[in-house]
Amino acid sequence: MTIVSFPIGKRRFAPSWWWTLLTIAVCVLFVRLGNWQWDRGAHVQAEWDAFTRGTNVPMPLGARSLGSLPRYGHISVTGTWDAAHQFLIDNRSHDGEAGYEVLTPLQLPDGRVLLVDRGWVAFTGSRARLPIITIQGTQAVSQAVSLAGRLDNPPVGGLAFGRAAPTTDSLWPKVTSFPTLAQLALALHHKVEPWMLLLDRASPDGYLRDWQPPGLSPLRHWSYALQWWLFAVTLLVFWVIMSIRRQEPRAS
Questions:
Q1: What CA–CA distance (Å, rounded) separates 74 from 123?
Q2: What is the pTM of this model?
Q3: What is the pLDDT of residue 215?
Q4: 63, 72, 201, 250: most buried, per Cβ within 10 A?
Q5: How high is the pLDDT of residue 158?
């Protein structure tokens, strides 16, 4: 059964109902996937813009709540390192080399604890031999330090089986993989601030710091959107071609 039927030269355009309905359904799916990727690209672009703005002059934190500040907000703080309770975030690579990111608590003058990502260190080649993470050559520092950085969430893993919360025993430093702030606070036995700090390259006591914007490039998402929309157009063209049939000769 056809929807319409009219001649085109020596052939006839006569699409069937089932083929037309299937084409419409799949085209709608492709268009929606394209729209989703386009919106995703716009969202990532906004995050990249915020990440770039985070290189502006840092704003002193003072007594303000970190929860009131935006992601990638650039701040300066003064506090005391807690070098005895550090984390090594596993499964972090740089230029294809395996390693860890060093997460160190910083106690602010009012007693709040801010976790500071001090950068990347290379894997030692053995899980039994962790890298030595020091602060100014010592394992315990009592003097106040001033530093700056951007506010961010802890690294997020793509797969659930790659995550491992830090232990709550007395052994330090603790190796963990894609932990939440709540899990880190539980291991510290102390409440932590709702953001961690990506330590600026110019700030002291850091390791390799090559912070990158999150996620895929916005252009990648937009190219995916164009691909989905192209699939929809291609399917429509295919529907037209497949709906053109040879005309049956009329009976005399």
A1: 29
A2: 0.74
A3: 76
A4: 72
A5: 56
